[in-house]
Amino acid sequence: MNVENAFPIGIPGQKWGATEKRQWLEQTTVKRSYFEEVVPKIEALKANFDVFQYGQLHYDNNPVGEDRYPLFALKTRSWSADKPTVLVTGGVHGYETSGVHGALLFAQSEAAHYQDAFNIVIAPCVSPWGYETINRWNPEALDPNRNFIANSPAQESAAVMQMVADLGMSILAHIDLHETTDTDELEFRPALAARDGIEYVKGSIPDGFYTVGDTEKEDDELQKAIIDSVRQVTHIAPADENNQIIGSDVTQEGVINYPLVQLGLCAGFTDCTYCTTTEVYPDSPKVTDDECNRAQVAAITGALDFIQRL
What we know:
Blueprint: E1 2-3, H1 18-26, H2 34-37, H3 39-43, E2 49-58, E3 68-76, E4 85-90, H4 97-109, E5 119-123, H5 128-133, H6 155-167, E6 171-179, H7 182-196, E7 200-201, E8 210-214, H8 220-230, E9 244-245, E10 248-249, E11 255-258, E12 274-280, H9 289-309
């Protein structure tokens, strides 16, 4: 099914300008609170982690949400140059709830088991405005997860990249926590097509967990270890009739690959040896919110257990 313009803002075939972007921003609303639901959980982890503010988002004249959002990260104690460093990011797309709360649950429940082997740094909510408005973009109609590039125009992406650079450590592994939701197809992909003045081509949403690896890395075994770990918590997304998931060829059960650096994706910016983007499906009738969070934790522990076995 092809639809020229399935979004009520803009003119079909024409890219949005400032007027359309403002119209889009003004029709968004705040639906939950970063300061009430996320920040207190981060503060509660100060007893076991070094919690630090790595930046602040500035949205001048923002009619929806706050003008300022502080950004926080957590570091394991006993940080050492002799240990490899692992980066966990969540909430790059703020609406993907288990990315945020799965990262925090890992910090609460499992990170201590790995801190002797790894330095671990966790940025649990990269896009707090997106978290509050349940949105894929930031207020400037930019997708942070397509802007992990030099001189990034997305504040959220630039802040994380600078934070990692300031650590002064090479990153061995990066686990970026995401979800694929029904609203991807109902709202966000139509909005993307409208914003960019292109034809919207309807797709499908897979029912289950999958990962996105890097086409430039030899990491099939890592992805398999993650899938095997997560299947203990939730079901794995099946391939469609074309042996694909969201339009990409399945390389093994529950795994597709993207050129991460070329696409400006978060999991590609560190030049790490091991990386993955997790994709939980929270709209499935087969899962609960808690299971989605635990699936994210299982993905992280599956990756770390695999690396430790090498």
